[in-house]
Amino acid sequence: MKDKFGREMKTLRLSVTDRCDLKCRYCMPEEGVAWLDKPQLLTLEEKIRAVETLVELGIDRIKITGGEPLLYPRLNDLVERLARLPLRDLSLTTNGTRLETLAEPLKKAGLKRVTVSLDSLDDERFKAITRGGSLKKVWDGLMAAEKAGLTPLKVNCVVLKENLEDVVDLARLTMDHPWEIRFIEYMPVTASVRLERSQGVPPKEVKAMIEAALGAMESVDGYAHAPSTDWRLPKAMGKIGFISSVSDSFCSRCDRLRLSADGFLKLCMAHADGLALKPLLQGGIPDAALKERIRGAVHHKPEGHSFWFTTPAPGEAMSRIGG
Ligand code: SAM
Ligand code: SF4
Questions:
Q1: pLDDT tens per residue, range 176-208
Q2: For a designed S-S bond to 255, which of 12, 78, 225, 306 qualifies (C-beta 3.0 to 4.6 A apart)?
Q3: Looking at ligand 2, which atom is closest to the CA of residue 317?
């Protein structure tokens, strides 16, 4: 399944719920967002049919996301079903608040690995950025994920001016843990979060800060279509990744599609283009016609994004897009 620029689609970010138990400052407005109503959401069977079709069309990596995916009541059933598909990777991105108890059952259901969002190692700053989250809970979740074998573990940190002083301590974690710590540039996708783009820090500056404190890093190979570039500190067990979505576009190597909790197949994070699958699935569309509609939509995947020129969409919170 290729778009008109010849890019082959291999990765699906599957958002299983739009709900979340945190309100991170870069993702959700303080007043929250209106949740979708149950009838708008894909049912478990609709999700599975959509994913199976996409896998038949060539998708072989699935990243489950949200909102907060651990809030989705049928997550274990979904993972069990997805684990039977011919995939190279089945991972999940979580804020970690419920991971301590769910890590083991998810591993048993067939999940391969998790990425945990963790923006600060300081209790107060963590609480401020997530608007109420508990650093201890997330840390216990990380430990439980490692114990359950949901590895290699990745940690996502969105770097803002307010947590810039955390980046060296987070990077230092890679010295004694075989984790990948990824520093993500703030993307001004959602106007309603009212967070100026000037609050973000370009990954180049973050890298320079880490190297000044911990030594020069060497470049390491990763998945060729990944948005991150990967590095290693001298003698470190783990890796450090930088995702420069704003200052340095990776669109030419993008192999990603997104499916939202209400069944919208989104072609690019920064554009509204896509295909609403829910009405097609509810209308009983035959397999061949469904594939044709998806292929046709994918053909028109936008060439790329520029957050400098794209106006943030007021209604579309990152929590609903899934990151
Ligand atoms: N709730 C889960 C979590 O926090 O990991 C999954 C969904 S969240 C939308 C997925 C990822 O997107 C997280 O790592 C989060 O830090 C990142 N993210 C959210 N808003 C962002 C923004 N405005 N710019 C850059 N990354 C963002
Ligand atoms: Fe929730 Fe994840 Fe968004 Fe934070 S980044 S508000 S945890 S969806």
A1: 999 999 999 998 877 778 888 889 999 999 999
A2: 225
A3: 3
